[in-house]
Predict the structure of lysoplasmalogenase.
Amino acid sequence: VKSEGPKLVPFFKATCVYFVLWLPTSSPSWFSALIKCLPIFCLWVFLLAHGINFLVSHRSASRILAGLIFSAVGDAFLIWQEQGYFIHGLLMFAITHILYSSAFGMKPLHLKAGLLMGVVSSSCYAFLYSYLSGPFTYLVAVYIALIGFMGWRAVAGVQLCNDLWTWTKLSACVGAMLFMVSDLTIALNKFCFPVPYSRVIIMATYYAAQMLIALSAVETRDEEDFRKRS
């Protein structure tokens, strides 16, 4: 917390700016897109503050940075979702989940966690299915599969026993779960029924998710520092 906390101050300030300004979604503009994306830009800076060499030499960190970049583009598209850019945003976030899954890796496999995540993802899609039509019938299915896979890889990484770096893996796990909550709220609000305080729920869980996933990227850095001290 002492080492990483100060680097996250700009993110917290940018998040406060977003919630204080609370720009109406009915009048999309480049300014509103900037305000919405600003916390994610700050997370770019957070990772870049660890050094270019660190990002280049650690694929997981560089993939999380790439995911944050695609997330910002997706956020911008969703500002104009009523103008027909919702699918573009969906595509950007699908790429984000692929990058995050790759960053979390396939070890340990943890098939039980995968089965559980498969059941949760299938249940969500089964509920949404009757509300979907046209291309969204299969686009949402693919998206849920991708975010469910990302959630599996994040959960699988948590090893509470004999794991010195649990806090970063736990951070990835909680971040992935919050991302799923955020996206499920979007889907319910857009396709099914109005969700009370949907925008607050969506953005609060989304920003928290992205911060926690960005924090998980510093794991390899912490491990190196520990080895040097040893």
User: Anything to note?
Assistant: The chain is about 75% helix and 0% strand. The chain has one domain: 2-226.
